[in-house]
């Protein structure tokens, strides 16, 4: 598994652990001790997964994750024995809460679950942070790892990643800072299918979990002649940020070809004063290849 994807996965799972912990607390306040015990266990489980993701380890079995974690992280002394006990306790208590007949988790047990989850998260955090920092330092810039992704896994792209990508898009330079862009974002399979027919080369839009169509306004432009240049830079920012996040994307050319532009404008029902620039499917890459080295000294003319 690509190192950037491991990093993204580890961070994603850590955030999920925090989310489960917050939910466990909220649910306990409402008095549902069984569900609180379950959510607290999931906080522990995801904290473990955030660590094991760094090795590229994947297992759908909880017991598999626990034994991998114990073997590689407790027996080796990376984490103390105490974390292993907390993991075992939360797992046993979660099993009782979920499966034991005529049983309701006592309030103090639910609180203990949450306390254990907080501790597990507290213990793994410094390890995660230093691992993340080390990976980030060792990663080459996204400029040198990005390749076009045309096939995606069915996994959804979380909206917070889309927001990060759009933030990067809007960080682009533009002529006289005219910022001509607005973005149409679709996770609607039917719309994406129609977008994939915008040109003979647009098929990657078909099975992408999300498609961004950067568009530009045609009015109130300080330098209308430069608008396509602005949009191209903005599109590249989208691809680079997707790469940074461990996602994949590809540019599907639309502008300046009138027939493609009219087709996409119709599919998206764009307002009169907007034109589509490009179609950019985004998702988790089904496969990843290394970037080819295109550096050619012969193309440089030194004066
Ligand atoms: C303006 C532009 C239009 C493109 N249009 C398409 C397209 O319609 N379909 C497609 O599959 N790829 C499209 N691409 C992606 C290129 O094929 C790809 O960038 C190129 O082959 C280099 O590969 P790489 O992106 O993996 O480095 C386009 C790229 C650019 C910059």
Describe the structure.
- The chain is of the alpha+beta class and about 300 residues long.
- It folds into two domains: about 5-140, Four Helix Bundle (Hemerythrin (Met), subunit A) (Up-down Bundle), CATH 1.20.120.330; about 160-285, NADH Oxidase (3-Layer(aba) Sandwich).
- Helix content is about 50%, strand content about 10%.
- The longest helix is centred in the middle third of the chain and has 32 residues, at about 105-140.
- It is elongated, with a radius of gyration of 24 Å.
- About 35% of the residues are buried.
- Flavin mononucleotide binds near residues 252 and 253.
- Flavin mononucleotide (FMN) binds near residues 199 and 250.
Draw up the topology in text:
Layout: H1 3-29, H2 33-52, H3 62-74, H4 81-99, H5 107-138, H6 159-170, E1 181-186, H7 189-195, E2 210-217, H8 227-244, E3 248-249, E4 252-253, H9 258-268, E5 274-276, E6 278-283
Antiparallel strand pairs: 1-2, 2-5, 2-6, 3-6, 4-6
Helix pairs in contact: 1-2, 1-5, 2-3, 2-4, 2-5, 4-5, 6-8
The structure holds flavin mononucleotide.
């Amino acid at each position: 598994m690509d190192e950037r994807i491991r990093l993204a996965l580890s961070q994603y799972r850590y955030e999920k652990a925090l989310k489960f912990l917050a939910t466990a607390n909220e649910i306990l306040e409402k008095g549902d001790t069984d569900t609180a015990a379950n959510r607290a266990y999931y906080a522990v489980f995801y904290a473990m997964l955030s660590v094991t993701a760094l090795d590229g380890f994947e297992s759908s079995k909880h017991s598999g994750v626990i034994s991998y974690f114990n073997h590689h992280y407790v027996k080796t002394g990376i984490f103390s024995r105490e974390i292993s006990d907390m993991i075992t306790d939360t797992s046993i208590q979660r099993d009782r809460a979920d499966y034991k007949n005529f049983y309701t988790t006592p309030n103090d047990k639910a609180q203990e679950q949450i306390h254990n989850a907080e501790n597990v998260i507290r213990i793994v955090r410094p390890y995660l942070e230093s691992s993340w920092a080390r990976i980030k330092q060792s990663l080459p810039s996204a400029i040198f790892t990005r390749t076009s992704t045309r096939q995606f896994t069915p996994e959804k792209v979380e909206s917070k990643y889309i927001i990060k990508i759009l933030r990067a898009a809007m960080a682009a330079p533009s002529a006289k800072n005219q910022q001509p862009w607005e973005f149409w974002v679709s996770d609607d399979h039917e719309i994406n299918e129609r977008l994939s027919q915008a040109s003979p080369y647009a098929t990657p839009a078909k099975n992408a979990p999300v498609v961004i169509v950067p568009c530009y306004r045609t009015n109130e432009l300080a330098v209308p002649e430069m608008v396509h240049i602005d949009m191209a830079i903005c599109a590249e920012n989208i691809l680079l940020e997707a790469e940074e996040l461990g996602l994949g994307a590809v540019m599907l050319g639309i502008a300046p070809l009138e027939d493609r532009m009219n087709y996409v404008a119709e599919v998206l029902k764009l307002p009169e004063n907007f034109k589509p620039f490009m179609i950019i499917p985004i998702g988790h890459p089904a496969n990843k290849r290394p970037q080819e080295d295109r550096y050619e000294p012969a193309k440089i003319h030194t004066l």
